[in-house]
Give the backbone structure.
Amino acid sequence: MPTERPRRRIPEATVARLPVYLRILSEQAEEEVESISSDRLAELGGVNAAKVRKDLSYLGSYGTRGVGYEVAYLVYQIRRELGLTHDWPVVIVGAGNLGQALAGYGGFGERGFPVAGIVDVDPAKVGTVLGGVRVRHIDELSQIVQSKRVNIGVVATPTAAAQDAAERLVRAGVTSILNFAPVVLSVPRSIEVRKVDLAVELQILSYHEQRRATTSTLRSVSGGVSGIGGGGGVSGPGGTSGIGGTAATTRPASA
Amino acid sequence: MPTERPRRRIPEATVARLPVYLRILSEQAEEEVESISSDRLAELGGVNAAKVRKDLSYLGSYGTRGVGYEVAYLVYQIRRELGLTHDWPVVIVGAGNLGQALAGYGGFGERGFPVAGIVDVDPAKVGTVLGGVRVRHIDELSQIVQSKRVNIGVVATPTAAAQDAAERLVRAGVTSILNFAPVVLSVPRSIEVRKVDLAVELQILSYHEQRRATTSTLRSVSGGVSGIGGGGGVSGPGGTSGIGGTAATTRPASA
DNA sequence: CATTGTGAAGCGTTTCACAGCC
DNA sequence: GGCTGTGAAACGCTTCACAATG
């Protein structure tokens, strides 16, 4: 049993799906499922089975032909590959609506990302407690990052303050940033940035809604919606769904 | 001046970037900038200039060679293409931490997505007011969707309740869903679903952090971080940044 | 014989490079 | 001269199809 690290560079698209497999596999493990086929995993994840196999193949060959994958082992391998063998404390900048929600949302800590601290510029907010974490002043950012060994920062400030927040995070020593503000952050190339823009997501939906209305002007206003919750199929109309962020073209499995 | 609708199908990747251009262009318009080149727009958006030009070309040929694009006109074209010529009221299911933050976050309404309603199963939450909107019981969902002509629903429930929420939304007549719960929703193919999973984003960052640690064990602990905020360059190390969700390979412009 | 693992084909996206135009 | 618009090349991701195999 070789515990060697896979040398290959894993494609970004695959990296983005591994967390989804991981969640599904963890659920299966809880339900005492010991083995799973690529077909089943694909069904649960709303993806193509070939994609699942290719994705998993980047981790190494951990399946058994004719049988499937051992759930527990796969969970272990994915965790290792994603660097989830230990916790990654995060620091949140901005204790507004969003920052509060993030701090209060238990799912972060549960999934291995405990909130090491939350900071704000506004002295009025300092001292209040959110999700068990006391809000501290932004000047204490460096100290928090250093003492708690934080690598990941979350920007949850208003748009105007986001760039400054990012710069402070970088100066404090953070190397990855999750940005919720609708701006493109300017940071050194060595810093990994991911952006989540809620308005953009809605605007993409708006595009499809608009298209629906334009493409075929004739259409029964609330056509055949039903047949929900049946099998395991998933997904939007050749659009984006469970896995794959922006460019997943998913089709239901239809067992 | 042809106001004809572009016939071409716009690639999904482009659709995902148009909102970003739109935001930048709107900002430029506010600063009284009348004309902009693909180079400048690329710089501000953290993308390649060729990509900007190709993206905009799908809208039609609205630029002027040797000059650039007229900001106001481009704003108008992108809005039209994205279906943002009118508002899209949204309904939020789930008045927990996240639902509250979303309702309280003014940015939604400002960007053309007013919160038409927020519902919850918990009677204790019904009646409370969030961001100016009173929480109503989930049984009133259909009525809200019908009377306010809502097309877009937001799932902000705990994981366990998400599938039910989605089914209710679909039954109520919603045709697009923005899902914040970490599950793959099973809905009819005709429904457009987009998913935002905060834990997944963090896990992707974790992967890169882990990789950083593994790839080259020798490295100055807090190497050359500086040179921030200088020009207009952007982006991560060949990874994801401003534009492009999952698969943007951005490189700074370095004027 | 069911299911994995994977070359190879297919497809969508990005980038290049330059002709076309103001 | 500067900048757009776009074929064509390059790239990465997805899907197919089937040989390999427990």
